[in-house]
Amino acid sequence: MLRPLSTDDVEALFAYRSRPDVCRYVPFEPMTRKVIKERLATQWANTELTDEGQALTLGIEVAGTGQLVGDVVLFWHSREHRGGEIGYVVHPDFSGHGYATEAAHGLLRLGFDQLGLHRVVARIDERNEPSAKVARRLGMRQEARLVHNELFKGEWSTELDFAILRDEFLRSAPGAAS
Ligand SMILES: CC(C)(COP(=O)(O)OP(=O)(O)OC[C@H]1O[C@@H](n2cnc3c(N)ncnc32)[C@H](O)[C@@H]1OP(=O)(O)O)[C@@H](O)C(=O)NCCC(=O)NCCS
């Protein structure tokens, strides 16, 4: 289940967002409880997307147990070009169950069905194979490999750019609005 984050989620978020292994290929550093509380009061308190430049972060809750096991984010980059971007993080203890893929699929549906996006991308460090596998499982196409394009956390990062168009998503997701 995807749901907004709340102040009750501090410990669950800290459990994975404080870990260096989880943060290795993502833009943020391991988070303290203080940082998490600040985010919950600001960016993560946002529950809607009303204009470009905004981001919506949602928690991944396991239906049945109520456990928060990760979170996903949808960026709305451009109103004119109807472009967005997704990101996902799952607690390592809960990886290998398909939660990231299922959650990101729900986020793509939100972006294409509700927001009317035309194209959604995912930008992934080449060394982050589990993340690239999620993108491929979502039906995203690898469109670029940018060699050493960013000095990321002290090392050159080679970036893989994945993308999926609305029509492609709708063709592969029966039941989604046309
Ligand atoms: C990227 C990340 C979310 C991937 O997590 P993950 O657990 O591998 O991905 P999923 O939750 O979709 O699970 C997929 C795995 O579960 C398996 N699986 C089991 N049941 C499944 C199901 N019902 N549906 C889909 N996959 C299932 C898949 O086969 C796959 O295993 P495999 O990789 O060995 O083939 C995780 O590694 C992570 O959080 N990393 C740190 C943060 C990060 O780097 N985020 C991405 C930034 S670009």
From TrEMBL:
The superkingdom of the source organism is Bacteria
Q: Which PROSITE patterns match?
A: GNAT (PS51186)
Please state every residue range assigned to the domain named N-acetyltransferase: 1-161
PANTHER family found in the cross-reference section: GNAT FAMILY, PUTATIVE (AFU_ORTHOLOGUE AFUA_3G00765)-RELATED-RELATED, N-ACETYLTRANSFERASE DOMAIN-CONTAINING PROTEIN
Q: What is this protein called?
A: GNAT family N-acetyltransferase
